[in-house]
Every structure is written in structure tokens, then in C-alpha cells.
Amino acid sequence: MALLSARDIHKKYDDTEVLKGIDLDIEQSEVVALIGASGSGKTTFLRCINLLEEYHQGRIELEGESIGYTASGRRRKLGERQISAQRAKIGMVFQSFNLFPHMTAEANVMLGLTKVRGMSNAEAADRARHWLDRVGLADRRRHYPYQLSGGQQQRVAIARAVAMEPRLMLFDEVTSALDPELVAEVLAVMQDLARSGMTMVVVSHEMLFVRDVATRVVFMDGGLVAQSGTPDEVLHNPQTERLRSFLGRFHGIFGPV
User: Fold this and answer.
1) HSE on the CB side for 134, CA within 13 Å?
2) Around 60, how many Cα atoms within 13 Å sit in the side-chain half-sphere?
3) Average pLDDT score over residue span 237-243
4) Which pLDDT band holds residue 1 (cuts at 50, 70, 90)?
5) Of 32, 60, 205, 251, which is least packed with CB atoms within 10 Å of its CB?
6) Alpha-carbon distance 215 to 94, whole Å?
């Protein structure tokens, strides 16, 4: 059984169909990179997985459990308590850091552990310190967000998400708001998580990261999966003109396509 299975996922905004029937399976410990032009549906699909967006048709399962909607009979949205429990199994890091400005780095990481996981303050503090150390911020745990660089804030956001021990991690263009010199430190943390066996779905235009870290690359175009395969298959052997044109922007990385 795949860790995550998506079948025939459709999503509309008013009369605009953004997802037109996404099918995707993700296995345990895979790092799946979603690539494609802006508007291709990558972020919308991530938000459907994490139930931040309702999807109007299809089915998403995490470890065999239907996400967001009933598994059989007439399609019905699950209750908020059920959805919250499901969402806690899926971590997500966004472009913006979304840290609480009045809380230290450590307190930001602890919050979900105490409020959602029900840990004691001592347990939560131990886990927060572990993950802040893991992302290279042990000496910044008492700092407030305004005292941290953008890269450091994003690493706190990653620590906060993975400290919840999700079954699946989603990353949505997490380096796009960072100055170029700060991008590498965040990508290094993500690469370390990938090496540790964490299952990840990553929306990114950082194509060197995609080439070197992803186990599978999925090219989305017009709300559909247009090509999927290993990084070598997708990045060096594009099967459509749309993918060939997209990769042409990265000519210096992949050579002629």
C-alpha cells in the first residue's frame, strides 16, 4: 500500500478548474518533487492533501484512511475533529514562515506539541531542543523571530513541523521568499531530512535540489500530471514540448533539452 494515494482529484475555483484529475501514489521514504509553471496546480494539490483546500471530486488516502471525506457511500466531508486529527499526520511548510512573533523559536516549536499532541511542557521542550539542534539552531532557541534571519526563521518553521512527527511532509516553495544567500541553508536541512527517510512532497524551482535529492519528479501542466519518473527520466528526457520549454529556463543546469 502506498503511504499516500490520490485518485482523480478535481478542484475548482468558481468556474475555473485548477485540478483536472490528478492521480499520484507516494511510497514511504520517497521524495517527490512537483515541478511546473505557475498556475499548473502544484500548490493547490498540496493544499488539498493537507485539507487546507476542499477538493470536489476524487479521493486522497493516507495509509489507507480517506482524507477529508467519507470513504464509502455518498461523499460527505468529515467533521472538524476528524479532519484536525488527519491534518496532524501531515506536516506542511509554506513560503512564509508563519512564526508567532511574540514567542521564541523554542516556544514556536513547542506550541503544537503541547496543544495538539498533549505533551507536558518538559517533554515538548526536550523535543523542541532536539529539532532546533537538528536544523542548526540550538544556540538560537531563545531568540524571537525578529532576531533571526529569514533562513533561520524558515528552519524554525521546518523544526516546528517535523517535531510533530508527521507521516508525510509537504514543502511549498519554502525558499522562494529568501535572499539567495540564505537558500542553501534551508535546502541543506531538507536534504538531511530526506537522507533520514522522511517522506516528502516538495514544490520547488530549485532544480539542482530536485535533481540531486528527489527520488521522483512529477511535471504538472494545466492541472494534470503530464510526466512522472526519476529525475534523470524527467529532466533529461522530456516527453512533451511543454516540459521541454519549462526546462529550457534551466539550460545551464541540464544542458540542451
Assistant:
1) 23
2) 28
3) 93
4) confident
5) 251
6) 21
Q: Does the pLDDT of residue 254 top 80, yes or no?
A: no
pTM exceeds cut of 0.70: yes
What is the C-alpha separation between 240 and 17, in angstroms, rounded? 22
The letter for the amino acid at 86 is Q
**For all residues of the chain together, what is the average pLDDT?**
94
Q: What's the confidence (pLDDT) of residue 252?
A: 64
Nearest to 7 by CA among 52, 45, 41: 45
d(C-alpha 36, C-alpha 152), whole Å: 27
Contact 42, 211 (CB under 8 A): no
The grid cell for 91 is 506536516
Tell how strand 168-172 and strand 65-66 pair up: unpaired
Instruction: Provide DSSP, 83-133.
Output: HHHHHTTEEEE-SS----TTS-HHHHHHHHHHHTS---HHHHHHHHHHHHH
Residues in the chain: 257
Q: Please determine, for residue 8, whether its predicted confidence score (pLDDT) is greater than 70.
A: yes
Measured in degrees and rounded to the nearest 5, phi and psi for residue 131 equal -75, -30
